[in-house]
Amino acid sequence: MDGQRQILHGRWVLPMVPDTGALPDHAVIVEGGRIRDVLPSLQVSQRYPDGTVEQLHAHVLMPGLVNCHTHAAMSLFRGLADDLALQKWLEQRIWPAEQRHVSERFVADGARLACAEMLRNGITCFNDMYYYPDATATVAAEVGLRCRVGLRVLPGQRALHLEPEDSLEGGLRIHDRWRRHPLVGTTLAPHSPRSLSGALMRTLGRLSRDYDLRLHMHVHETGEEVADYMGLHGVSPLQRMHRQGLVGPRLIAVHAIHLELADRRLLAEAGAHVVHCPRSNLKLGNGLAAVAELLRLGVNVALGTDGAASNNNLDLFGEMRMAALLAKAVGNDPTALPASAALRMATINGARALGLADDIGSLEAGKWADIIAVDVGGIAAHPHFDIVSQLVYATGANQVTDVWIAGRRLLEKRQFLTVDQQAVAAAVDNWQTRVPT
Amino acid sequence: MDGQRQILHGRWVLPMVPDTGALPDHAVIVEGGRIRDVLPSLQVSQRYPDGTVEQLHAHVLMPGLVNCHTHAAMSLFRGLADDLALQKWLEQRIWPAEQRHVSERFVADGARLACAEMLRNGITCFNDMYYYPDATATVAAEVGLRCRVGLRVLPGQRALHLEPEDSLEGGLRIHDRWRRHPLVGTTLAPHSPRSLSGALMRTLGRLSRDYDLRLHMHVHETGEEVADYMGLHGVSPLQRMHRQGLVGPRLIAVHAIHLELADRRLLAEAGAHVVHCPRSNLKLGNGLAAVAELLRLGVNVALGTDGAASNNNLDLFGEMRMAALLAKAVGNDPTALPASAALRMATINGARALGLADDIGSLEAGKWADIIAVDVGGIAAHPHFDIVSQLVYATGANQVTDVWIAGRRLLEKRQFLTVDQQAVAAAVDNWQTRVPT
């Protein structure tokens, strides 16, 4: 199938790059898992006479969404502990539950639940950080989802029981196992700056450069965390990371809420990436990130769902809309973060953050065919004044009907082709009976 | 059908009142369009041996949602003008479009689109404010949706072309036409305090009392509006309304964002109702309402979607989630506005605001059977630690599968029984070609 030519006709095609907006009555040509061309449907029969034809007459074809911050396996804790203060949530509910239940099997079952949900929500690539990254990677590869898993190269404060792979050598073995995989790769993912000494930071910096690995970290998530750090070190976490050479184009700085102007400028000048997780930030009461300001300074800002325990689902349509709406309130400016900017955050900016901008994030010739079809034929999507606006302000993830990753179809008319939905639900129900509420 | 007994078995029943949470394996008994009983499914065959049985084994049965602020017909302007400053949005886009296009026919077609969308999203009652209220009422009655339409008893600043019914007498004729209708009723709906003299306020107060009509108004929506009003009158709009006798249990104060403590206390002491429209407030950059504070003071706060031109859809599941998340950010408190409070706002609080608390808003014996079934069997709804949390933080309106209003089924497995979907879409497309973007 991958070797064959596929011709996908859409009512609209939204390539994201170039910035043309939604192109009416266009088609995407896929060959060998990659995008060969984007052109008006009327010109297809002449230029590409052969191929498997798919007609998506009420749909927008657009790049698969890139979820730049997840703890996939935590989907098993969805709804376990809501409406609680952050410390109580972590210390009395989440951490004890992790201590008791998290195992390789738990992570595999949870990651499979998350992969299924993400796939159905049009997410074709995710950037994960959790225990047993190899288990998450294995599940993603089985399902056919693109991902990056974070190596726990240094035991943080929340090591469960020190696994052999929670070490530098163990992490690099996982890295080596996946480094030629077409879908899966690795990042360095220490939890946050709090647990890192200067020497450890320098080691991470060297590894990141030597192996060309992204550095995936929570930074400046709570005001308290930043204040405590400054009390201890005299500088903000980001400034200290900068001194140790960690703030550069390989840094994926997640949350980045409580920033001074100097921190924001540093991120911009260093070419670092920020992942905005608006619903998680709200739900945990962590504050409102100044995203429009970061974008204005030239920072590449992507989107993440965070884990389902603090969200509570993995839906970037919801995050796009939230990001666009929230930025207007934060800036007291209804023109802040327009729909097109939210769409970029969820697609091409995400690809850039992961170092995959040459491969995914837009429908451009030569990139992998990571494509989703979004049905805008339903009554709640009418009228069609502005499709870009429609996608951000009035579209639910349930309108994603079809998903291709590297040209392989994984979702067809909302049916999974690579996930046994009953088996996933059964495994989840089994864990539910074991995790006390 | 209405005279027969219907037995609806749910995996859970969430009655809202009494505040029991979700009851597993319960059933709702409906007779003559009203709720007869809520009881464990196991006891049904003994106590209610006869009746039409509906098994909803993966579903939550709960009260239909009450949308307390809409401009239904504006669904025809969905996506017409997004990401614009409020004045530009109104003066350059929305008002000219209304001036050119709004007619009785436009309102009927737009209201039909809105009714279809609301029905499918589990909204069983709405409180509307727009031109040609009689046209909206007629459409709602045809579809079978419960509603209150606002009488334009006094021409506001935005009168299109003065219709005979945009007068006191005309409004009262509409009131009289609908006052015995089982689903439809009327409110007094002057646009906002700005256009009202003291004498007009007193007239409205008298009418509201004499005819027992709710007073549905936008109040304190923007900071500028409040400041201007205080410059002109020396007191806030709400304080002036209070002096003229308008602030009481019949007042439905929509938005109520920019409030002083005195205004908040006034609303609480007077027993007035507030309608929170979180997504519209964000999108138009109007600020963040202190909802948790209003609730703490004892104000009855309900939810509204506002019109689709500023939202951009009519989905109270989205508004519940947004209200719960936003309150946590506003109060810097992750325990603020828990899921159960958001559900109350969308159901029983809405019923109270409309003066319908004896008739709808909960699944209690004697109330109208306005019931929705929400499918939580899907993968993204697993696990099921907390159904109330699930409904607010992880449920999409697309999970509403069935809707009954006064015991009459209007949506069955997501199919409309009283709406011709193709005809609605065709009418919308026709308007789309006429409204220039």
Description:
The structure is a homodimer of 437-residue chains. By secondary structure, chain A is an alpha/beta fold. Chain A has two domains: 5-63 and 368-406, Urease, subunit C, domain 1, CATH 2.30.40; 65-353, Metal-dependent hydrolases (TIM Barrel, Alpha-Beta Barrel). Chain A is built from 16 helices and 16 strands. In chain A, the strands form three sheets. In chain A, strands 3-2-1-4-13-14-15-16 form an eight-stranded mixed beta sheet, with helices on one face. In chain A, strand 10 (251-255), helix 9 (261-270) and strand 11 (273-276) form a beta-alpha-beta unit. In chain A, helix 12 (316-330) crosses helix 13 and helix 13 crosses helix 15. Chains A, B: Keywords: Hydrolase, Metal-binding, Zinc. Chains A, B: One of its GO terms (molecular function) is S-adenosylhomocysteine deaminase activity. Chains A, B: InterPro entries: Amidohydro-rel, Metal-dep_hydrolase_composite, Metal_Hydrolase, MTA/SAH_deaminase.
